[in-house]
Structure formats: structure tokens, C-alpha cells
Amino acid sequence: MNLELLNPFENEFPEVIEDCLEDGYACCCSPNRRGTLLAVGCLDGRVVIWDFDTRGIARVLKGHSHPISSVSWSRDGRKLLSASSDWTVKLWDVLSGNVDQTLQLESAALFCQIHPRDPNQYVVLPVMERPLLGNWKTGERTVLPHHTEEQKQDTKKQKMHVSAVSFNKKGDKIYTGDAKGFITIIDTKTLEIEHSFRVSGGSTIKSIQFSKSGKDFLLNSADRTLRAYDVDTLQHREFQDAVNKIQWKQCCFSCDGDFIIGGSAQKAEHNIYIWNRAFGRLVKILEGPKEGILDLVWHPLRPIIASISTSGVVYIWATNYTENWSAFAPDFTELQENEEYEEREDEFDIAEDEDDQGPGKKRKRVDEPGEVDIMTIDKVTAYSSGEEDELWFIPIVFDDASLPAPSPQAAAAYEGEGVAVPAPAPQ
């Protein structure tokens, strides 16, 4: 995917279902930071990693025995964290497909997330318990504090169940939400509560999502309302379906933060609502098959949405592409229907320039060779940190014994160039 070749005038939000990804029963999904890989957690405990460009399976991670409830990528895309209802959380090496670490819990895990900057840190939300902040390198695990006004008055309520948790964009703060509508902001290093407030209505906080810039966060509450907050001022704007008053299954920001999407929790409809965040206006309702929504995410860089239906299928929503052949000849006009054209008598005659001394001089001047710079790499503005070492794609390793092994000359040619060379098959 070359971002420089994308149409800058295409629609800012998707319109139609472009493709479907089917392999098992999907439960949750998450793209890596570049949007080149999509991790899908399945009902049978597998984690299927799809190549988002080729729409093929790049890797299958097997290790859980129960459904996957959450998946999370590290910043460099080399590690993947998966939480399951089998009471375990596993850290995977994406390139090798092996399990690096396993965390055994006392209950099923609802949510997991890797620290945005440090792949060794993570946060896990078990069922009916407070979230845990852990470190794979040191082995430390700490229960996060969560205090509200009611808990300060009654110490017996210290076990109020946290329903949502998330790192902020930099990872220096942790946001938690509970069943009473309280949001608690915790410092990641000191684990001290910096601020706590209650959402209007006091309904259960179902999820917390941050924008790509980190300046806003989005709350999905059980009162059928989505609330977008400013991180600094905590001023918010509410989004809801004023007509049907439906519940929301999942919500998130667009890649540029200009739009907010919410997936309907109705079991018999696959509707995705898109609002303009600045004006609060509903701009589009995407209507899919007669199936409910389990999860949805917006592509990190492009106007693409991946949604999971209750049938376990991942639907890819994209803009409605229309062919424009006039781009190949800018001086031509694109016609909507056939028209009869009357040619001028001298329209296609070859007219030589009077300034040219010879008939082939002008053609020679146009065809003169020039220097082409193939060494300079232009920085893509969509990548905020393009110098980081990241895993963008998963190389294919042939394990078929009938395929010939690569020659030593081919292996030497590719050595050090970032291209995976398959090892010879065992005899």
C-alpha cells in the first residue's frame, strides 16, 4: 500500500462493503499501527492474522482453548497480546508464532492492552475484578486503584467492578470506568489517582477509546449515548440516535479524528452510524446484512472500517470507487453517454513548429534523457515516526517438501535486505 498514490479527493468515510474475511467464527479484531495486518480473535481460541493488502491469512496463532475476548498490538507490531475466557492472557511473537509469556488469572479476561510505548507493560481487565497493571520483564502485577465518592464513605464497596480500562495515547495515564459511571484517571508510574469524575446519568461505562492524536477520548455508556471528551478540559459532546434510542455495541474515532462511529447493538441489524465530531451531525448510516455487530475498528490510515457480525464474518467497508478514465488524458472530457462528434478538417494534422529547424528536433528535445533520483526516500506525512523498526508484513515460509530449496546465490542476494528466505525442507 503506497499512501502517496491514494486519491486525496476520495470520500472521508466508507460507504459499501468491499470484502469479507471468513476463517472460523470471529469475535474481536484489531489492526496494527500501520494498518497492514489485522488480528482477529476467534471463538475456537485461535488468533488469525490477516494481510490487509492481499486479504489473505498471514499467520494463525494457536494456544487458547476458549474464545478470544480481546487482542492488542505492540507499537512496533512484533508482539501481540490476546485475552481469552480460558482465564489466560498470552503474549505472542508475531513473526515466529510462538508464545513468549502466559499470565494465569483467577477469572476470565474481558480486555487486554499493551502499553503504547513499552511492549513489556500491559493492562488486563478480569471479570468482576479490578484491572491489573503488569510488566513481563520484572514479573510485577499491581491491582489498579479505583475510588469513588461512595467507596470513600463505605470501605466495603472497594470491590466495585471496573467495566472498562485503557491507556491514553502516550501511556502515562490509565483511564478506568465502572458500573456507576465513574471515570478514574491514574498515573501509570506512581499509580496514584489524579482525577475522578462521574458521567452524567451514572450509567455503566462499556468502553473507552482514544483518538489517534490522543487529545480526545470516547465513552460508550449503557444509557444509549456516546460521549466524546477533550482530554485537557473534559468538555464533551454527546452522540446518540435521537429517533430509535438504540444501545451501542462498540464505538471508535476515525483515523483523522474528524468522525465518530458507533455500531448498533440490535441483534437483527448491522448498522454503523457515522457522525461529524465537530458539529455533532449524523452524516451516514451504513446498512449491512441482517446480523448484529460484535466489534468494529477504523483503519489507522485510510477510510476503511472492519466490522464483525454475529455470524463470525469480518466485513470490510470502503469508499465507493468509481473509474475515471479522463485521468489518463487530462485534456479529454468524460462522457456520460455516446455523442456524435464532428471532426474538423485539420484537427489531427501534424503541425510543425516554425521555430524548429528540423522535423525531428522537437521530438528529440522531449525525449532527451534526464537524471532520475531513485535513492532519496520522501517522508510520508501519515507516519509520525517513520524511523522506528516495525514489522509491517509477515513473510511466507514454504513448508512443502516438493518445492525446490533456494540456491545459495539467491540466499546471498537477499541477505540483509529484509526479505525472508525459506529454509530448505527436511528430507
Automatic annotation (TrEMBL):
Entries under PROSITE patterns matching the protein: WD_REPEATS_1 (PS00678), WD_REPEATS_2 (PS50082), WD_REPEATS_REGION (PS50294)
WD repeat start and end residues: 61-102
Ranges where the record places region Disordered: 343-367
Protein name in UniProt: WD40 repeat protein, COMPASS complex protein
Pfam hit, one: WD40
Keywords per UniProt: Nucleus, Repeat, WD repeat
Compartment annotation: Nucleus
Coiled coil: none
Domain of life: Eukaryota
Matching InterPro entries: RBBP5/Swd1, WD40/YVTN_repeat-like_dom_sf, WD40_repeat_CS, WD40_repeat_dom_sf, WD40_rpt
Biased composition (Acidic residues): 343-357
GO CC, alphabetical: Set1C/COMPASS complex
